[in-house]
Amino acid sequence: MSSPEKLKVQLLPEEESEIKRFELETKRLEQSKLSPDDFRRFRLNNGVYGIRGDENRHMIRIKIRFGRMNALQLERIAELTEKYTPKKLAHVTTRQAIQIYEILRSDVPKALRGFAEAGLTTREACGNTVRNVTAGHTAGIDPHEAFDVTPYADLLSLYFLRNPICQNLPRKFKIVFEGSDKTDA
């Protein structure tokens, strides 16, 4: 596996703030200063689902923007999955995300920090937001595509990330880019 230093990137101020807020909101919940419903809305916006029957364990959904990540990011996901989940398994979704299950609530902020240090985010991976912007799996390499859609998927993904207009939609909103009529995105 990779060394943590190899992957460490400087966190954006908003990433640092979100992780610290997750720690704070967790403490507030545990001290009964935050209702479970308010915590639910908060954690969903940060890509964290509850696990039925165990209020102390969670599932984290990591957005893989337009389905692309590098080997070091994949290694970081594997490292954190092995460190924080009992079964040491990750699930790749059909919407180009990776989910890891049964993380203790107290470990969620540490996992979020580890993902952020690798340039990965869970922000808006759940809840009524613009979800992960995806692209066809052959985007950028398909000889039949009219043009490479990946730069557009990437820019739109970054535009919607943390955009106030996307924070409280009536329902989740999903976007996919496809540059060829020969593949199914």
Q: Keyphrases for this structure?
A:
two-stranded parallel sheet; Sulfite Reductase Hemoprotein, domain 2; 185 residues; 16% strand; single chain; globular
Task: Give a written overview of the molecule.
It is built from six helices and six strands. It is α+β, with helices and mostly antiparallel strands. It starts with a helix and ends in an 8-residue tail after the last strand. The mean pLDDT is 93.
Q: What's the N-to-C terminus distance?
A: 31 Å
Q: SSE string, helix = H, strand = E?
A: HHHEEHEEHEHE
Residue-averaged pLDDT, rounded? Answer: 93
What does the overall shape look like?
globular
Spatial order of the strands forming the largest sheet: 1-2-4-3
What CATH architecture of the largest domain do you see? Alpha-Beta Complex
Counted up, domains total 2
Helix content: 25-40%
Major sheet attributes: 4 strands, antiparallel
Low-confidence stretches: none
